[in-house]
Amino acid sequence: MKIKTLAELTSVKECACKLMSARLKGKNSADTNAKEEQIQEGSFKKTILVCGGPGCSASKSDVISSNLKECLKSEGLENEVDVVLTGCFGFCEAGPVIKIMPDNTFYVKVRPEDAEEIVKEHIVKGNKVEHLLYTEPSTGEQVVEDKDTNFYKKQVRIALRNCGLIDPEKIDEYIGLDGYKALATCLTEYSPEKVIEIISASGLSGRGGAGFPTGKKWAASARAKAEQKYIVCNADEGDPGAFMDRSILEGDPHSVLEAMAIAGYAIGATKGLIYIRAEYPLAVHRLQVAIGQAREYGLLGKDIFGTGFEFDIELRLGAGAFVCGEATALIHSMEGKRGEPTFKPPRTSEKGYLGMPTNVNNVETYANVPAIILKGAEWFSSIGTANSKGTKVFALAGQIRNVGLIEVPMGTTLREIVYEIGGGMKDGKKFKAIQTGGPSGGCLTEKHLDIPIDYKSLSEAGSMMGSGGMVIMDESSCMVSVAKFYLDFTVEESCGKCTPCRIGNKRLYEMLDKITKGKGTMEDLEHLRNLSNVIKETALCGLGQSSPNPILSTLDNFWDEFVEHVVDKKCRAGVCKDLIHYEINPSACIGCTNCARNCPVDAIQGERKSPHTIDQEMCIKCGTCVTKCKFNAIRIL
Amino acid sequence: MENMINLTIDDIKVQVPKGTTILKAAKSIGIDIPTLCHYELKGQGVENRPGSCRVCMVEVEGKGNLAAACATNVSEGMVVKTHTLRVIMARRTVVDLMLSDHPADCLVCPQSGKCELQKLAVDLGLREVTYSGEKSVYKVDVSPAIIRDVNKCVMCRRCETVCNSLQTVGALSAINRGFPAVVGTAFEQKLSDSTCVMCGQCVQACPVGALSEVDNTRQVMRAISDPKKTVIVQTAPAVRVAIGEEFGMEPGSRVTGKMVTALRMLGFDYVFDTDFAADLTIMEEGTEMLQRLDKYLKGDKDVRLPIMTSCCPGWVNFFETYYPDMLDVPSTAKSPMQMFGAIAKTYWAEKLGIKREDLVVVSIMPCVAKKYECQREEFKTDGNPDVDYSLTTRELADMIKLLSINFADLKEEEFDRPLGESTGAAVIFGATGGVIEAATRTAYELFTKKELGKVDFAELRGLDGVREATVDFNGTPIHIGIAHGLGNARKLLDRVRNGETMFHAIEIMACPGGCVGGAGQPYHHGDFSKVEKRLNAIYEEDRNKPLRKSHENPYIKQLYEEFLGEPCGEKSHKLLHTHYFDKSAKVEEVDD
Questions:
Q1: Is pLDDT above 70 for A365?
Q2: N or C terminus: fewer CB in 10 A for chain B?
Q3: In chain B, which residue's Cα lies nearest the Cα of A493?
């Protein structure tokens, strides 16, 4: 069936809404255009949403989903309650998570064997399964609805609006939540110029890292004259630990397809390409399904909405090189060439794929577009700060309580993220640093926590927004080692084209390695800074120019720690093996022999019930004894 | 002046056309910004400008980072500083980094003294390597003509650009990523197993010692010192207009006589000239051309036209690799070098009573591919090659330097007879269009039975990559095509393959400019005006020759009378003609 008019789209939507009524009732209706009273009763009285995000999938959320279905069937409820495996809910720490609609009951750390109890107690009897409810760590109280948790309270979900709410493999569900309405509106009501005007006025900027104004980019491609233009979606997400784009593509692929078609209309392109890494097989699959469904409905292809507008999308699989996230390298890779950047200008908006004007935006940027079209530029620009509008998705990781995927308005402070959304530090440890922007970013400290997040403030503080990686570290992290970790990544991922990045980063890494091994000198610290500065200002592309950021920011913010490594040959975090040794405190050791029995190299001696000692010559500093000792008797010095 | 841009470089106001890079704008007012990766064969449509070495960094007012001068176009009102302390320190650090991942065996490197990295390090006053660390290690790849020691590669990509853009051979490209990134072959094949045609333009382009020719000077010295051996030498036409550069002389200096003297001083028993064999080539190839033309004009539909020249070994490899369907199109005539070897080891050796195994034939060539050519099996008799060793112009210069000969001050001597006599037609073999011009001079007279009024064919000369001209053979228009550089050859060949244009004869040379721009010539470091000067010198040498048509060479006549009989006769077929092999499997291997 082809959808040719807005009215036909609306009728598909109405059918979908019926089936999704349980969800729509539960969802805060302010987020959709559907008013509660308009929601028609569907056949399903309840819906169980099961998170199918990467983390929950790894904890068998697919088994949870099938167990739930089985239990419902054996209760004869399969036609009254449906189970939907959705995209990522974001709350990975509590995963696997499920949500029962319309009553919004949020269950966490669900195991496959809990399915029966959930069906029997909650669905059949209407009782909450108390032990699966989330307990707020700060208050110790149980929270029933997800929106009441500290994790979700401050979040505003625009790019992730449908993730966790719809079945990503059903286009009807996307349409049910106003999907493709933005495209219909653009094609039937707005001129291409008007579309660009809206995007420009919204203040949306590139979510891939650099923050280039999206409207400006579109306008440049629109200005360029050529027979063929291209819309490219950069889905080459490569920051260590980042999974924002992956979650959007796995959870809500149509939002990206719709946005690309809108961009195509705005700049005059008929072809779209999504460059996605082959390591994201599920996202690739979801996109393939979504493209197929959109074509079937005529939402991709020729004469979309009967307006004569033509647009189609193909996938291009990348081999997962980090540098291919850089627009020019990405385009070369798509052309079958070596994935390495070339200097700009010409920008891709003038000369991109196959030499034609090409608009390249990242997944998250696109995901915002339909919402902006539907709700208006003013709505979007009312969210955020003076110079950064809207929201940003972050992948929260590290030594905080709540790791996961979050979307917050620009201007949210790092403190809010760490202590409210993130739930504060784990195991009562002290906050030490927050790393943003991935390998191109920097490490910020306590004194930066009240910075409201936006492109400008983060870069002024010596870090950057980046694509949204955020790692929070406590005092057990050695900052020299952290810098070394990121350099190791850039050395590995440099394309090797320009000298500063190919050789310079390697030399930076080697110096850091020397320092962590206690062989560094104060001269090395000077060289580290000098070389970092030269690489920053001489490297060819953004990857090289930003690769020294983790070093420069740690040198600035954790200078003492570097000096300790060099002068005192000490690692205060106890991470650098060459700079630490383990000692047993004789007054705490009760001689349980547990450490000695577990020491892989038999370096611990001692009689039963008398204090043990470690042979420093033999000790390989593996740390096993520390984890085995129940009496805190082993100290790292 | 809409398309002109005004800017200031080092406080000097300058106006340049829109689209000019800072590098070229600076050059236009005499400011040389050092670069390593930038390499341009001006007029040949080849520019390597990856902006990757980051040596040419300059400060542009209002820009946060430094800018690469080769990769940044000028803009109105731009203010550029090319040598602030910040700039100098950045350049030093970049070169310092390169040296930190370099074997630094400069004293024994084939490129020592000619190395652009070495020069940069000297100019930037580097006295120690600050950022030392791990070095990348790769295997050294030795092929019959080219040695690849990519331990010295600086990833400037010049070789990649000439191999792909200029030559469309595509044997070299960047492989690996990060620190181990380097220029290599597909699947890290050996060069001899790759699609490489041994043209050697990569060697000419390499700024460091990562690509060099196989050094045969020691074998030649050993042969000369062997009292049992008679060692004779032949010199290609393009060598005499280029070797002077190695001794500080102006490009285009004609030093034929000095070169002959030097070769005698080196101990060669006889100093002969490949030009003699070039005249012989014209007799054979010209006759073959006329035979085919005659058949064609008589309406024979099976005859293959155009006839193509076959004296360039890089070109021969190229069509054997990429045009296996056209193996019967090129002339079967051997190259002058191989004809010389075949005649020297038969006619001349018999005349002097020298046994084949005691005769060593050395060639001095502007070419790297000749090293490969002389090793081809079909050019051997019982395992003994017609040409034993082929040296480049550079290697000859090295040998002269080895003997501390003061080349510039040498007196001028003449080639030995009979294999040293030649005409002006033979000399112009060294320039693009020269072989076909020489053939035209002879073919015209043989075809029309009339004497040429004007020997110079200006319409066949020049440096355009692909040229066409029609020569009137007394009422019969002969359509001639010329290409130099294998990329241009491909354009011409595709037109022939697709039947787009009817040519009677085509000349192709693998190197830009022909042999004067050969890979074995003194390094021009991207200054193509040097090649142009050599080219002009070639025509000057021709003008000064008393005889200018190959068939007028008295010793060639004598050779046919005494030994060969007639051109394309039975004996010349055996000695002076060859056949070609289908090497396309190499391409398919990579494409799979």
A1: yes
A2: C
A3: B178
Interface of B with A in 60-89 (CB under 8 A): 64-66, 68, 71-73, 89
Q: Of A71, A78, A23, whose CA–CA distance to A49 is shortest? A: A23
Instruction: Kindly report the CATH class assigned to A44-149.
Output: alpha beta
> Across residues A199-217, what is the average pLDDT?
93
A311 neighbors A183 (Cβ within 8 angstroms): no
Instruction: Answer yes or no: do B130 and A527 touch at CB < 8 A.
Output: yes
Q: Is B159 a catalytic residue?
A: no
Where exactly are the structural domains of chain A?
44-149, 171-381, 391-474, 479-568, 581-636
Interface test with B, best of A484, A499, A515 (most B CBs within 10 A): A499
Domain A391-474 grouped into CATH 3.10.20.600: yes
Shortest CA distance to B325 belongs to which of B576, B494, B481, B501?
A: B494
The confidence score (pLDDT) of residue A35 equals 54
Query: Parallel, antiparallel, or unpaired: how do β-strands B4-9 and A634-636 relate?
Result: unpaired
Residue A238 — very low, low, confident or very high, per pLDDT cuts 50/70/90?
confident
Q: Please report which residue ranges of B403-551 form alpha helices under DSSP H.
A: 424-427, 434-448, 486-497, 529-543
Is the distance from CB of B202 to CB of B183 less than 8 angstroms? no
* Model confidence pLDDT, tens digit, residues B503-515: 999 999 999 999 9
Domain A479-568 is in which class? mainly alpha
Taking residues A476-491, report their average pLDDT. Answer: 95
Rounded to a whole number, what is the distance in angstroms from the first to the last CA of chain A? 71
> pLDDT tens-digit profile of B284-317?
999 999 999 999 989 888 888 899 999 999 999 9
SS3 A563: helix
Contact B179, B499 (CB under 8 A): no
CB contact under 8 A, A531 and B93: yes
What SS3 state is found at A458? helix
pLDDT tens by residue, A279-302: 999 999 999 999 999 999 999 999
Contact between B54 and A540 using a beta-carbon 8 Å cutoff: yes
Tell me the C-alpha distance between B449 and B551, whole Å. Answer: 13
Q: What is the CATH number of domain B283-335+423-554+579-585?
A: 3.40.950.10
CB contact under 8 A, B134 and A340: no
Q: For the structural domain made of A581-636, what CATH number should be given?
A: 3.30.70.20
C-alpha angle with apex B545: B541 to B548, nearest 5 degrees? 105
Question: Alpha-carbon distance B322 to B197, whole Å?
Answer: 10
Query: How far apart, in whole angstroms, are the C-alpha atoms of residue B312 and residue A84?
Result: 71
User: Does residue B106 carry a catalytic annotation?
Assistant: no
Q: Which residues of A touch B66 (CB under 8 A)?
A: 537-538
Measured between CA atoms, the residue of chain B closest to residue A489 is: B178
CATH class of A171-381: alpha beta
> Does B590 lie at the interface with A, CB-CB under 8 angstroms?
no
Domain extents in chain B: 4-123, 283-335+423-554+579-585
Inter-residue contact A445 to A557 (CB < 8 Å)? yes
Average pLDDT over residues A84-95: 92
Q: What is the pLDDT of residues A151-170, one digit of tens each?
A: 999 999 999 999 999 999 99
A536 CA: distance to closest CA in chain B (Å): 8
Considering the four listed CATH numbers 3.10.20.740, 3.20.20.70, 1.10.155.10, 3.40.50.360, the one that applies to the domain covering B4-123 is 3.10.20.740
* Closest chain A CA to residue B180: A496
**Full-model pTM:** 0.92
Question: What is the interface pTM, i.e. ipTM, of the complex?
Answer: 0.93
Residue A9 Cα, gap to closest chain B Cα (Å): 47
Q: Which of A338, A491, A498 sits opposite B173 (nearest CB)?
A: A338
